[in-house]
């Protein structure tokens, strides 16, 4: 839809893929007060990754508006499905190591996450519920660093090879944006293609990246071994 912003697309993408940097969370489980258990394993034939109950709770803690104390069964199951996708993607990303993010980049990413919650204090309270001490917790900082590393991989593997041509922009303006604008804002002066070109390019790029990510995950699921050991 024309009304979608690039930031909304980014959030959607991150919700489905960019949170896939939870690989090291299992190693941090000892620092948590949660009663942990292995819920699932994901293998690409070379490496296997665990998904624990604490992984699922960490996932829920990052989702605004989701109850975590206690968590709802449907939310736990949905989080498990997302984590399976994330583990599949992370296994592939580990094949191409990237430079580690800077402390400045980590702080900026945490600031972005906090904005989706009522306050930094409210977000920290959720982190404490799943075992972290605060936003400054070393384990939490490490996970954010890994998340940024995966985003860098996504940029390299998918976004950098996505091309949107001027013809694509013109077609979207003519076939989607203009009709939608006239329907929603009858009588108003419609912006020109040149005025909207940058937004259209960003929108089409993110849509195509998301489509490529979905195709990748579909293929990865066909090749991977996914074992659900217990209900979350």
What does this 3D model show about the protein?
With about 230 residues, this protein is mainly α. The chain folds into 2 domains: about 5-160 and about 215-230, Triger factor/SurA peptide-binding fold, CATH 1.10.4030; about 165-205, no CATH class. It contains 8 helices and 3 strands, in the order H-E-E-H-H-H-H-H-H-H-E. The chain has helices spanning about 5-20, 55-60, 75-95, 105-115, 120-130, 140-155, 165-185, 195-225; strands spanning about 40-45, 50, 225-230. It has a 3-stranded antiparallel β-sheet. Strand 1 and strand 2 form a beta hairpin. Helix 2 packs across helix 3, helix 4 crosses helix 6 (about 140-155) and helix 7 crosses helix 8 (about 195-225). It is globular and about 60 Å long.
Quickly give the structural class.
mainly alpha
The tally of helices reads: 8
Largest sheet: spatial strand order: 2-1-3
Helicity, as a percent range: 55-70%
The profile of the biggest β sheet is:
3 strands, antiparallel
Mean pLDDT over all positions: 83
Distance between the termini: 35 Å
Q: Proportion of β residues? A: 5-15%
Contiguous low-pLDDT stretches (5 residues minimum) are 1-34
Task: Encode the helix/strand succession as letters.
Answer: HEEHHHHHHHE
Q: Into how many domains do the coordinates divide?
A: 2
Rg over C-alpha atoms, rounded to the nearest angstrom: 20 Å
Shape: globular
- The number of strands is 3
Query: What's the CATH topology name of the largest domain?
Result: Triger factor/SurA peptide-binding fold
CATH architecture of the largest domain: Orthogonal Bundle
The CATH class of the largest domain, by name, is Mainly Alpha
